[in-house]
Amino acid sequence: MSKVLIISSSLRAKSNSDLIAKQIQIGALDKGHDVELLSLKGKKINYCIGCFSCASTGKCVFKDDVADILAKVKEAESIVFVSPIYYYEMSGQMKTLIDRMNPLYGGNNAFKHIYFASTATDDDPSAPERAIFGLKGFVACFDGVKFEDSLFLGGNTDPEEIGNKPEQLKEAYEFGKKII
Q1: Three-state SS for 32?
Q2: pLDDT in tens, 39-73
């Protein structure tokens, strides 16, 4: 089986995204994958300043938590991004992390499979489309990497609300079992 990294990008305490990520982790573990769940809570992630120093050195000029995160991303074969949908887009934390992944461009990365799971107050199935489009733009920058699938669990406003929706928790679990 493969090495899977799940990145939960919500900074909210008791977030629905974290509950989704945990169910995905359980599903992937049950399938036999080696799985790590990483939360961006408490991580220091500076904004990319577009200096492109990383293009020549392979390292970012900032000394924050991103270097450790990128080491995990680089080694994972499958990556699952989990985000709340804010104004019909991925969370700012997720976008900031993706912007800071530039040092991986052109490198020897293990990741080949990208997944996206999200939740929102809105329950319209089109709510995550812009976030998915943005993530697919990131994926397109890496040869041999494929956007595999997405999961959207809408209608969740309050912290841990999804914990009272066994059908949505099961969907997240089954999504985890589908990871390559």
Answers
A1: coil
A2: 999 999 999 999 999 988 888 999 999 999 999 99
Q: How far apart are CA 102 and CA 71, in angstroms?
A: 13
CA distance linking residue 54 with residue 105, whole number of Å = 9
Answer whether 159's CB lies under 8 Å from 124's CB. Answer: no
Assign 61 to helix, strand or coil.
Answer: coil
* Sole residue written with tokens 């985890």: 176
Nearest CA-CA partner of 15 in 122, 116, 158: 158
Instruction: Let me know: does 151 contact 131? Beta carbons within 8 Å.
Output: no
Supply the DSSP symbol for 48.
P
> Are 163 and 13 within 8 A, CB to CB?
no
Classified as helix, coil or strand, 57 is helix
End-to-end CA distance of the chain: 8
User: Per-residue pLDDT tens for 111-126?
Assistant: 999 999 999 999 999 9
Mean pLDDT, residues 14-25 taken together? 97
SS3 category, 77: coil
Q: By the 8 A CB rule, do 88 and 127 touch?
A: yes
Angle at 121 between CA 7 and CA 48, to 5 degrees: 40
pTM over 0.85: yes
